[in-house]
Records
---
Amino acid sequence: GRFRLQLAVAATVLVSLVGGLGAALWQAGVAREETARAERSKRFVTSILERAQPREGAGGAVLAADLLAVAGTRIETELEADPRAAAELGIVIGKGLSGLGDPQRGEQPLRAAVARAEQVFGRTHPLTIQGRALLVESLNATKPEEASRIVDELVPDALAGLPATAADAVFALRSQSFQRAKRGLAQASYQPLKQAVALAEQH
């Protein structure tokens, strides 16, 4: 009986040690992976900035929007093996183009980034929600039917992610109202607009 008790205690300790070691190794692996991802992203951004500098006597400064557009195309070849970094940077590029008043140029990088974000993070993750909202913005002027379809799917997901997704939920509701009004659905456009205003006041 005493031997069995000692064996059980030893087994418990061993399992605990192995479990702790496994957790430590897992954490170390995650840390290494995150470090490697950050380094890849840093190298990518640095190379974009280095190539952006015009050669002496070859013309003026490179426009920020052009720089971001080039970065969007290079993601597909240089970060293809790292879908998480590609998704994050693609959404950053889309956000940057939006902030520069040129959201349409973000369409292609955002399409790819949203697809990757849905696979890596999930459809309702705040980063994915942000990417989907930016994609809607990039399509609003040129492809309103597609934008309307995406925003109708986005609204419930963005509302479900509150409060983390509040800004994107407000944008999605306003876009939904705008798209309905453009289609002549005035009555149907009021409800999402009212909801957007109320949500903006709360958050």
---
Amino acid sequence: NSHICSGTDTGSNVWETVAGIKPEMVFIVTGEINSGKSTLMENLYNFNKEGGGIITKKKFCYGTFLGYDLYRLDNQTKAEFALYPQFIDDKWEEVYRFGPFSFSKKGLIFFDNCIQELINKKVQPVFIDEAGPAELEGKLFFMGIKKVLHSGLTLYITVRSSCLEKMISVLSIKDFQILKIEKGGFYEIKGYDPRSIRRKER
């Protein structure tokens, strides 16, 4: 099944389309890098102000891109998460280095505490932005994502297109819908059998 929704508003069309789908579902927001995945996640949360979770936002200083901060949707708190090494100071505690970025221990603790609190309080849907190459190696958000999946709470998660098929396999996601961001600001919503993703995506 497939639906096409206009993405020109604040996410209401997408929300209305998926709102009637059964709970305990995983919604995977996918698209290319800088396609608007994080923006769509924030808009989906803001439409109903239900649930909670984490999105990543680019961090700038006087127009220079430094890295990424984590923003918690349900209480608007934030934490530094990833920086280019040249912008790290003596207070930075590195937990992991992947690609060009150094990742903060405090940022990862901020993420883990948020996810555990949502699970303990059974708050849903849970929003996690994003799962990428590091998570495919079992790092960064991997354990938090697995905890949410195990909890049975409804999960919205962003995954870049190039990681989609492998991510579904690595996380053992069985029951899911894909919200694919298309060119021109439209979202295509599909239900996939994981065994047929390769055929259907091409």
---
Amino acid sequence: VQKGLPVYWKPLSLWNRGYLACALAMEALKQYITVKYVRMADFLLECTVAWDEKRYDKVLQAYARPKLFIIDEWLDIELTKNDLHAIKELVHRRRRKLSTIFCSQILKEGWYQALGGENTEAEAIIDRITYDGYDINIEYTDPANAVSMRKIYSKMCLLYDGFFSFAVVRQVDNKLFFFLRIIIKFKYYTNIRGNVTFDRKTS
């Protein structure tokens, strides 16, 4: 992030790449780094509306300004010619100055086809992203026990809600309530951390 380089995750079944990217964003915010998160479909829709309302450049500038920009569901939708132009402009404005995290279901090797294949826009976008970024490969050490973050947090919410109701009724001491919350968090974080490995390399 400090070097202004792009980062992209390799797909992993059941793992919420958007959650991982947002976890990095939270850490960046603690270091007073400006962060912006958006789904690709929402970004392209805003660009389309902005073009009709003659404020296209202002919208692009707003996305190009943050030091860390996270674009989720990268290339998960079919793109038009105007979409390709918007993506190229954004990538060009951020290249080697500001960091971008790309979260996608598609392997990096398949980006060219997802961008429409043989066209100058696709080649320009790929050239501006893949040659100076961090390629992070995330793999399960035990795929049979793979659990999504949504499932984990839904269970945590149920435990929190249930214990909070118990604490109110029984008038549990605040220190005990805080201690049990830590135990619940530790239980679920250790379950997932022991089942995921990270392999980072620079393109």
---
Amino acid sequence: QVSINSDSAAIGSPGSYAVTSGPLGTGTITLNGGIIRPGGVSGDRTLHNAVQIGGNVQAGNLSTQKMIFAGDVSLSATNPTLTMSVANTANTTTTAAIFAGAIGGGSNGITLTNVTLSHNPTAVVVFGNGAADNRANTYTGLTQVAGPFTQLQLNKAAGTNALAGDVAVAWGTVKLMQSDQIAARATATVSSGTFDLNGNQE
């Protein structure tokens, strides 16, 4: 097991995409704080480990590289904040992190925001791995989008919960990439920002 409590952890090197074949081994990675980012000069980085988020974490790099969390993720803190970092380029939308596995955590929730940069690029975090991803996220706490240039994309198979609990858009955007991504009994509240159906239904 590897725990990151502060500072910065760079994952992988050019040509090395699977942490399970690298120095972090096959155990759970516990993120209690700090930054987890792609290492090297190019290429995305995939974590095949299970991940536990127990504190406020920054994901991504000041680049177009992204972190792909392929294993299951557990929210062990009540409401951790995940802050996305992308290249500081004007009029761009860049993915910082993809959560391709299932996210659990009981009644815990998560707040999503972005690093403040001078050119205001949009930082994207994706819950789901596309139309064939039928592994539901099960945490039932509030998901809050709270960054002015944060976009949460919900991208699991149609009818599969990317969000099992309520969602609040205080800033930024929630965008559906497939239909029926939010639990039927959940509430979506938009106080300032955008809920983009993107041609889908909910």
